[in-house]
Amino acid sequence: MKTILITGASSGIGRATANYFSERGWNVVATMRSPEKETELNRLDCVLVTKLDVERKATIQDAITKGIEHFGKIDVLLNNAGYAAFGPFEAATDVQVKKQFDVNVFGVMNSTKAILPHFRTNKAGMIINLSSIGGRVAFPLISLYHASKWAIEGFSESLYYELATQNIKVKVIEPGNIATDFTGRSLELIMDESLEVYKTYHEKVLQKQMESFQTNVSTPELVAKVIYEAAIDQTERFRYLAGEDAKFLENKRKESSDDEFMKFITSNFR
Ligand SMILES: NC(=O)c1ccc[n+]([C@@H]2O[C@H](COP(=O)([O-])OP(=O)(O)OC[C@H]3O[C@@H](n4cnc5c(N)ncnc54)[C@H](OP(=O)(O)O)[C@@H]3O)[C@@H](O)[C@H]2O)c1
């Protein structure tokens, strides 16, 4: 039996993935910031619910140790925990900028660093990072989130080569719009009322983004399925898209020049 450790398993994609792997006979270390609130995953066989806050290194180490003690070893780390800051960059406070990177980038690096000694001892392992189609293309007013996901893309692509030397695979998942609490609990709205100049544009873009989340959206179970396919894929593949909107944007990006693509995005938010 194989074991996956998932960060951010309390909701959305992380939760769906915990269920999906458990239904297919995997052991799951379902980690979350508030495990005391969990009432369902801890009822499943072969699921260990435990605390992990990607901003607190001690909790990462503790969750890994508990997972290994409980299941013998960990085969796959899924770096899923994340959220999005939305709003004009100029309005973002230093705390908001730092927090976006603390969770989405340094959180992934912290968890990755903590699992590597175990994977090297086993001479095998896999790290799957939740990027986003927003790690390949960018929309207006999401500069911090895009910066964090583009960082994950570069980090992961470089690690792919480096860790292959240790028989450790690195993969990224790039979902489009997914119906989770991402636009609720995981959306931090950035606005400074004194920056009135952005107000109309901000409202228009936010409305467009929300409409797109209503009409053009896939389920977290679809992403869980893609993550599962990545986890059992024996090939050297690195990128996995999830959702028709992600595939459309990826194709559009590939077949357009930078100018053409950016005109296309501009026209969408005019
Ligand atoms: N939904 C989308 O459209 C979409 C698209 C592309 C990529 N993604 C990516 O998918 C991942 C999961 O998002 P989701 O859509 O499933 O949203 P979600 O349902 O809101 O889940 C976000 C998860 O991240 C956890 N989290 C936040 N900060 C954390 C921290 N410091 N330490 C540990 N866990 C933390 C949350 O835990 P708490 O319960 O403790 O808050 C929650 O479990 C994110 O990386 C996101 O960027 C989502």
From TrEMBL:
<comment type="similarity">
    <text>Belongs to the short-chain dehydrogenases/reductases (SDR) family.</text>
</comment>
<dbReference type="InterPro" id="IPR036291">
    <property type="entry name" value="NAD(P)-bd_dom_sf"/>
</dbReference>
<dbReference type="InterPro" id="IPR051911">
    <property type="entry name" value="SDR_oxidoreductase"/>
</dbReference>
<protein>
    <submittedName>
        <fullName>Short-chain dehydrogenase</fullName>
    </submittedName>
</protein>
<dbReference type="GO" id="GO:0008206">
    <property type="term" value="P:bile acid metabolic process"/>
</dbReference>
<dbReference type="GO" id="GO:0016491">
    <property type="term" value="F:oxidoreductase activity"/>
</dbReference>
<dbReference type="Pfam" id="PF00106">
    <property type="entry name" value="adh_short"/>
</dbReference>
<keyword id="KW-0560">Oxidoreductase</keyword>
<dbReference type="InterPro" id="IPR002347">
    <property type="entry name" value="SDR_fam"/>
</dbReference>
